[in-house]
User: Fold these one by one.
Assistant:
Number 1:
Amino acid sequence: MLRTRRELRDALAGAARPVGLVPTMGWLHGGHGSLIERARSESSTVVVSIFVNPRQFGEASDFTRYPRDEARDLAICAAAGVDLVFAPSVDEVYPPGFDTVVTVGAIARPLEGAARPGHFDGVATVVAILFALVGAERAYFGTKDAQQIRVIRRMALDLALPTEVIACPTVREPDGLAMSSRNARLSRDARAAAPVVRRALLAARAAWEAGERSAETLRATMRAVLAAEPLADVEYVSVADDTTLEELDAVEGPALLSLAVRFGDVRLIDNEPLG
Ligand code: AMP
């Protein structure tokens, strides 16, 4: 396991190419596993980074409560055939005097960008650093964080970073709940209620498949499903253009259904593409 930029650079100096990078915040689950598997299938060297990035958390309490278990993560990486695990300290990623922020424009503003001010600055900055440190041919991200993928693609294109961004499908629990490190913090009742998030998305998808094209009706469909679950505290529901993520009036082309819902102090997001 590698702690410092120097150790990482030395380990990569002789590494077989191509290199595949899977950035994570740890507490690894099947979603991360699918990214690692995809990376393994098309890379000679797989690098997993484990770093709970303080700059992408708005609420300090969300950062401190984020689940961590490095020993468990390392065992999962070893079993999955990961070649290098980079698990740096905060000071190693942001050395003293660090004073640069990567800000992505319009695509980072709505949805998660609006709900979590500064979040995507933190994401784009740490991913730019990881891309520079690892120099991977490809990096793997989950579609569960649909806006994050778009933000990172924009950044990589605009900054001419040579790492190709690969999007991987969302992995779900048998009851439809998207796997997430935050699921571990749900109370028993909230865990039982949480699949309502997926049901809301699927209800809107079913309406769309039946011919409904009013975005407001699709939003109302999601809200109605969520309203039936008393533990679900809705932050937003969205029907947006798939490319720009701007809210739609009518769904005439590819669109993205997405939502953010709180269960107690645990905030979950999910999405479903249309078309
Ligand atoms: P995180 O550790 O939550 O920052 O996630 C690290 C990477 O795993 C990100 O690219 C996420 O989009 C991806 N990821 C998280 N949950 C899932 C999931 N359920 N299915 C697929 N990928 C996921």
Number 2:
Amino acid sequence: MSIQVSDGVFRLHTAETTYLFRTTAFGHLESLHYGRRVEDADVESLRYKHEIPHGSTVLYDEKADPSYCLEELPLEWSGVGKGDFRVTPMELRLPDGSFTCDFVYDSHRIESGIVKMDTLPQSAGIGAETLLVTLKDKAFTVYLDLYYTVYEAENVITRRAVLRNAEQAPVLLKRLMSYSLDLPDRGYTVATLSGGWINEANVIERKLETGMLVNESTSFSQHRHNPAVALLSRGATEDSGLVYGFNLVYGGNHQTSVELSPTGLVRITGGINPYCFLWELQPGETFETPEAVMTCSLGGKNGMSQNFHAFVQKQIVRGDWQNKERPILINNWEANFFQFRQNSLLRLAKRGKRLGCELFVLDDGWFGARNTDTAGLGDYTVNRKKLPEGLEGLGKRVNGLGLSFGLWFEPENVNDDSDLYRAHPDWAIQRPNRTPALGRHQKILNLTLPAVRDYIVENVSHILDTCPIAYVKWDMNRKVSDFEDGAFLHRYMIGYYEVLSRIFRPRPQILLEGCASGGGRFDLGHLCFAQQIWASDDTDPIERLRIQGGLSLFYPVSTMGAHVSMAPHQQTLRHTPLFTRFAVAAFGAFGLELDPMDLTPIERKVLTSMLSEYRKIRKTCQFGTFTRVDTGNPYIIQWQAQSETQTVILRAKTLTKAAQVNDLLTVTGLDPHKTYTCREIQNPLFVAGFGTLLKHILPVKIRSYSHILLAANKRLKMDDYAEQYRASGAQLMAGVQLHRSFIGTGYSEKMHMQGDDSAMLFVITEDS
Ligand code: DGJ
């Protein structure tokens, strides 16, 4: 049993953590402990001591207990107007017109698995147990149900709150968060993922001082601020120290507040953003908040990440593709944009197939008058000029090449220049008295309207059922404007999840990739439907190290769409080596975003052998235990993925230092007593990249711009030195010194000829 309740004390245990709270003499829920697993925790030692009250406080019931002050208590929930002045998880206008409320213990029960939600996606409940504690306001028959679902194996506890109005009059909700939790201060730093378009998932760490840090979004989950938040205790590293992680199974406007009170308590509360939020709860109605996910690890940031990865993989992602290796895809977007015909697509697909791709994806531009991004969105009529045999014909031909077929949709948006908008201008979100603000020349469809939802479900489903489609990319390319209020946006989310459920739950065979101008909607709500999400429109691998590395704090590798594109990269003009593009995308749901004809013949050959290498490591990269290895050098980024049979290491160098000779490769998680072979995947060198340096190496002098060199560069490659070691696990964990990189003093075959932005991939297997 992971949940035990006795004498008013609630004990929630996961494999490595314990979460404890109790009811106080006044019926409030007092937080006692969340952290290291404590088998028979002694409540007296854990409780926050408050025998002597602080000065300048408001006492809850001075006569009954002159030291009981809500502001000083660590609480599981709090209200308004009874002496707790910290950020509150709830602001309600009750039938007496006042915001003062006081919710106290009423009852509790334990259920196996989860208690199903009505409107929002939630975790799967496999092997879980749920505690429901019901609180009631002292003055009104308004109930608050607090749900705690314990995932023992994954070290995760989820929380959510449901408000039930049993009064005869409405209750107005201004704010109702999913959870609130108070922890003793440990010198926390708050880590969030923030950024923007093509600049997603920067890890921002801010020291928590007395006061509040808020992570929120006012246009769905979007690029600016991901809903996930971590609390790092002072001194926590990648591998050690107490770290908490919080996330929401929700992609609407979100908010997480972390407040350090003057008396050293940290309150964290998260859920729907109260921004413009007003929800009238009629008599007899309930309001459910999104599920929040919490984890805690003493194993530093990697410990937290690994808990989240296991949880997301098992309890969030679903469908036939949940645990299946993702197909190597070729997407035509960066190769064609809107300019294509069936024949050119088939040529592209054929080239992809020759390289080793398994899925061909037709991106934007196949319907209506969609020849630019100013028209066509909202329509589903296939553009017969581009695709004379329709999607069905194209799909069949793609299948005939030995590839499965995938298709792009952007169902939530509409262009003014579309048949849909001409027929139903009232279906777009806009205010009657204002000129609507556009984003990428488009408006958002009002998914709170049943007719709009039906239109999308029917059109998308029809295509999925009449064409041989194995994969869908669901895009969403604008932020919201011209809305009524925050409650409308929440209703939009409920409508959105209904649409996804109706389309994809009956079709679990389809691999769904979410996308919102890249990683604008990377959240657990979305991952309940989409097995993977396009992480960013920025495909430069050096940028991707930061983006995928940032996302890895909270999300597993299998969920991150990552593609090899052409260099110089569209987003940065950086010229990166092909191998680096491959190696970074290997730690993701891998694909190509290019036309192979733009590569040289030798690059195509090399890429073909990379894809065949990839098939041997794909399972480990996508589903193995993922670790960020701190190399001590901010310019050397190392990731590791480990399965039962294999360890794969990516080591990327973003800035080369001249004459730096020490290059230590350390591995983690091996058996010290076993022997392993560590092999580096062959890294190609293309001759033109060496410019005038060739003069020093070759017996004949060749100018760097000569025709001979350029011709040779198309067809010939050299091989960089590939490391290989046979060593004990203990040795590999202690570290092996890699061979030197070229520093201009001479040439040896046992030397690396890689500079800035290079990458190495190592595969480690146990010797039999
Ligand atoms: C934005 C996506 O992120 C791109 O990959 C591509 O699908 C375009 N939209 C198409 O309009």
